[in-house]
Amino acid sequence: MSTSVNSTPVNEKDEQVFQDLKLLNAVNDRYGGVIVEVREAMDSALFGSVLRASIAQWRHQGKKGVWIKLPIQHVNLVEAAVKEGFWFHHAEPNYLMLCYWIPEGTHTLPANASHRIGISAFVMNEKREVLVVQESTGRFQGTGVWKFPTGVVNEGEDICAAAVREVKEETAVDTKFIEILAFRQSHKALFDKSDIFFLCLLEPLS
Amino acid sequence: MSTSVNSTPVNEKDEQVFQDLKLLNAVNDRYGGVIVEVREAMDSALFGSVLRASIAQWRHQGKKGVWIKLPIQHVNLVEAAVKEGFWFHHAEPNYLMLCYWIPEGTHTLPANASHRIGISAFVMNEKREVLVVQESTGRFQGTGVWKFPTGVVNEGEDICAAAVREVKEETAVDTKFIEILAFRQSHKALFDKSDIFFLCLLEPLS
């Protein structure tokens, strides 16, 4: 649902602002908040004014969290949003998500993704031979250490599919996923994020 | 290690730039790249020029990935970095991480955290009574549905600690973590991120 100019403004100052500016298009979320997705180029000073007026409007409506999804091509608007009190929630290569909390007190906005998922592949054939590799880059490069194929589960990828893919990429061997043998969780890994690492059993098909 | 002005510039234009500008302080990462952490306020136009000269320097040195960690108080520099070809890698409430890839071809920069981790607590006492709750907010609010306590594993929190914490928060019951009974992975959840959800067995202590 889009917001519209309110017919019962809070005070005269707000009334003036509401009359002068077209407010931001927003859709309601399921938690009493609103989501703004910026789709068109805009002057940053104008954006700041419109955002301020929109927040006054949302406050009057009793809204809670405000989300702004800003595509990277509209990066000129980031500073204006931060000046209005927004902070960074998360970012992906092509957009930045900013957020703001209208009510008094601590916000209840959900946290950003916190974990990276890794896999290690234990591939054993009928002769009980195990598939191992040596690192061409990274910590064990040039050390002579043999290890299981390992890798990171891609965005949106199943753990079992990631294990099969990594083995294929690293060794060209086709495999079938059998089961997860063990896993462990660790903290303060890359970019201070946590990590869950699954040891998977696979059977070679070739 | 900090970068310094190079004594063998690539060409005259670069030489001029190197002489005129103090380059950005950067530390080398373990993968042939550099990391810049912005610690002081700076004019955005000047930052753009210094960044351009620094990239020329890093290219000359054969560097690969470039990371800029930008605290939210220096948000005025985001647009200048994007204009120089940087894109968003990830963000936390107080900083934005931007990145850039110098060599020809596809970048090999690691991906952002991809998963949120959830838990559900199966708490059973000696009488085989199971602890259940009703939602005061959310999807099952007002439906009369009883469910296990559930929640999200916090940043840096162990799965077993999260299960104990959520039960305490939702029911005031102290518990001891026993084991993980099952888990499932799902995709395209909140903010399009993936989700791993662990069903944990706990024993009541009170």
TrEMBL record, chains A, B:
Q: Which residues form the Nudix hydrolase domain?
A: 114-206
The regions listed as transmembrane in this protein's record are none
Pfam families, A to Z: NUDIX (PF00293), Nudix_hydro (PF18290)
Q: Name one GO molecular function term.
A: ADP-ribose diphosphatase activity
Q: Looking at the keywords, is Hydrolase present? A: yes
- Identify the InterPro entries for this entry: NUDIX_hydrolase-like_dom_sf (IPR015797), Nudix_hydrolase6-like (IPR003293), NUDIX_hydrolase_dom (IPR000086), Pre-Nudix (IPR040618)
Which Gene3D superfamilies is this protein grouped with? 3.40.630.30, Nucleoside Triphosphate Pyrophosphohydrolase (3.90.79.10)
- Key words, A-Z: Hydrolase
> Could you say which protein family the record assigns here?
Belongs to the Nudix hydrolase family.
PANTHER family associated with the record: NUDIX HYDROLASE 2, NUDIX HYDROLASE RELATED
Name used for this protein in its record: Nudix hydrolase domain-containing protein
Q: Give the organism the record lists.
A: Gossypium mustelinum
